[in-house]
Specification:
Blueprint (H helix, E strand, L loop, with lengths): L6 E4 L4 H14 L4 H21 L4 E8 L2 E8 L6 H5 L12 H8 L2 E7 L2 E9 L25
Antiparallel strand pairs: 1-2, 2-3, 3-5, 4-5
Helix pairs in contact: 1-2, 2-4
Length: 151
């Protein structure tokens, strides 16, 4: 049995440390390889957004939530809105601006709440990817070792 524990760390410019901590936590909770990679990349994008577009300060909190891992990324500036999530697309001519789109396609569920402490973006990744429903396209898939954007 895996003892439940929570990871909590401040957002800093040391993205490698945050990726390593989230990866170790998710691995300890039993998240398999490709799902772990998806979660770590999504958290990296969320933290990068806090550093580049938000207040530059906040926290990352990760915990087991039933059959999935939940990672909360708190941006103390509180500027992230549901409209930002809804408008997230990929512009093939742009050199940046993919973060929210990537997050939403790598995670099984993404929620956003405004709190008295800031914008709280929560990323959920199940231990197993959900099977596509009938007449629905397969979930976003990327070749291992590279991120491919196709439209």
């Amino acid at each position: 049995m895996i003892d439940e524990f929570e990871l909590r760390c401040p957002i800093t410019a040391d993205l490698a440390l945050i990726r390593d901590l989230v990866g170790m936590h998710a691995r300890h909770c039993g998240l398999p390889g490709h799902r772990l990679e998806d979660l770590v990349l999504a958290v990296n994008e969320a933290v990068t957004n806090v550093l580049d577009h938000g207040g530059g300060a906040g926290t990352v909190t990760a915990r087991q939530a039933g059959d999935r891992i939940a990672v909360e990324v708190l941006d103390r500036a509180g500027g992230l809105t549901h409209d930002h999530l809804a408008r997230a697309t990929v512009d093939p001519t742009a050199t940046q601006g993919y973060g929210l789109w990537v997050i939403q396609h790598l995670c099984d569920e993404v929620t956003l709440r405004q709190t008295d402490r800031g914008s709280l973006l929560t990323l959920f990744v199940r231990h197993r990817a959900p099977a596509p429903r009938r007449n629905e396209p397969a979930p976003f898939a990327r070749p291992r070792n590279e991120l491919a954007f196709t439209l």
